[in-house]
Amino acid sequence: MSAQIIDGKKIAQEVREQVSRDVMNLVSRGITPGLATILVGDDPGSQVYVRNKQKVAQELGIYSEHHALPAGSTQQEVTNKIEELNNNPKIHAILCQLPLPDGLDPWKVLETINPRKDVDGFHPVNLGKLLSCKKRSEIDELGIPVPCTPLGIMELIRHSGIEVSGKHAVVVGRSNIVGKPVALLLMSENATVTICHSRTKGLADIIREADIVVAAIGKPRYVQADWVKPGACVIDVGINRTDSGLVGDVDFENVKKVAGWLTPVPGGVGPMTIAMLMKSTVARAVPRRGL
Amino acid sequence: MSAQIIDGKKIAQEVREQVSRDVMNLVSRGITPGLATILVGDDPGSQVYVRNKQKVAQELGIYSEHHALPAGSTQQEVTNKIEELNNNPKIHAILCQLPLPDGLDPWKVLETINPRKDVDGFHPVNLGKLLSCKKRSEIDELGIPVPCTPLGIMELIRHSGIEVSGKHAVVVGRSNIVGKPVALLLMSENATVTICHSRTKGLADIIREADIVVAAIGKPRYVQADWVKPGACVIDVGINRTDSGLVGDVDFENVKKVAGWLTPVPGGVGPMTIAMLMKSTVARAVPRRGL
After folding, report:
1. CATH topology of domain B146-270
2. Looking at beta carbons, which residues of chain A come within 8 Å of B195?
3. What is the complex's ipTM, to 2 decimals?
4. This model's pTM is above 0.95
5. Of the residues B7, B53, B249, B279, which is catalytic?
6. Which residues in chain B are contacts of A107 at CB distance < 8 A?
7. If DSSP codes are grouped into helix, strand and coil, which group holds residue B217?
8. What are the catalytic residues of A?
9. Local confidence pLDDT in tens for the 291 residues of chain A
10. Which class would CATH give B29-119?
11. CA distance A114 to A104
12. Assigned superfamily of A147-271
């Protein structure tokens, strides 16, 4: 038996095509979705990320602008830039690339973004709404912005035809950008969810109970084949640079002999994040009652 | 072997005594903590709850006022009342008793409360901050208001000398007032947390893995003795009215032969909720930088 490999590149491409159609639809109604990215400082990795986001936005017909602020910017200078974008009617979605340089408080910065334009879903009021919602349908209907990597993970699962309701999902990692929101999304689709982390004891035994595993650990090839229940769906969120190239948090070659579904690295979760960001940008631009 | 029964009444009394000292301390600095309760409609159960809260506040030297609004109040009338209390410098903590009558949107009402005066911690911005915090110490230092029943549960566990870090906690129930916030608090103290609910399959087997069980199910005597790992800590949040009186969600008489610690119903979690509400009221009144 060999796992079905979930093709994130292909699914991301399908998402982008749908987004492109949605953009055309909105443009025909006189609305061009607008995305503003902000990068404080000159971290090369962040520059690559932001450039990619800009590029994809443009390909899909989304209006986009980029604002580069110097590394020594004050909290007030960043706030002023965000306020300017909050008030700019051409901009529906604001993304402030993290991490911020030392000396800036990321939470204060994220709180400055108008929650309706908070495309990353990191504003506490949006995280609070995500926490409060009982059902996935409620999250979608209320148009609550949700962090893009978790959204992408759910899309990979859905696309693969994997039933979530009533399944046991084990999320390894409790970060604010992946672990906690993906746990909430899985629960909102009626999974029983276990969240594990660096202080978890008996991780292998816990993972062995899982129908769905989301690995966001940050350790190369950490999840072993004999930790995985035969037939389980394994989503690998890890991106680790090693001597043998980019690898995930899962021992791909061996786990694929056991799992039912498995995402590769690269080409799994990675491509989904930008695609979902574009989808969320367009969702911010859709006129919505009560938001 | 027989479980240690966790005496919620006694622990709540200790919390109240500490709160009373804190109030005296604040009063000597010229600050009298002020609690405002709002009840819309005339639900008899809610009236009892609110009256109890008022009574305890007064006993502890907290200034309190109650605002009863008629059942037919509009969203705007409720909002106006909350705005008035937001602007009242004598009031540090506002509690709007739930549930609200049909026709009022509880989330809209809760969002109207100034987050700094949100003593129940139900404002989405406070829930979002709770979700974001990595450590319990961060929650406490930032003074983030947290729902009172989960706070009380954590206090019962702490008081009983039960180590949380590295333990497997199973929370049964995913409500916004108990299940989800208590899961976050347990995780912020480094527990591995599983959240179960009505759609969970194999609940007994999952509970059997737990070092700490929090039962918030709403079914009388549902959790059976043979579901419980010997020596586990079992917190019973249930309050079920039956022909044989008030009973919890746990089969107390049998589970106490297996568990290491067990809360009774009544006299376990119940008394803690009001005590923690008083503690949170006082915390709202403490002058705090940046809040």
Report:
1. Rossmann fold (3.40.50)
2. 183, 187, 192-194
3. 0.95
4. yes
5. B53
6. 132
7. coil
8. 53, 97, 120
9. 799 999 999 999 999 999 999 999 999 999 999 999 999 999 999 999 999 999 999 999 999 999 999 999 999 999 999 999 999 999 999 999 999 999 999 989 999 999 999 999 999 999 999 999 999 999 999 999 999 999 999 999 999 999 999 999 999 999 999 999 999 999 999 999 999 999 999 999 999 999 999 999 999 999 999 999 999 999 999 999 999 899 999 999 999 999 999 999 999 999 999 999 999 999 999 987 544
10. alpha beta
11. 18
12. NAD(P)-binding Rossmann-like Domain (3.40.50.720)
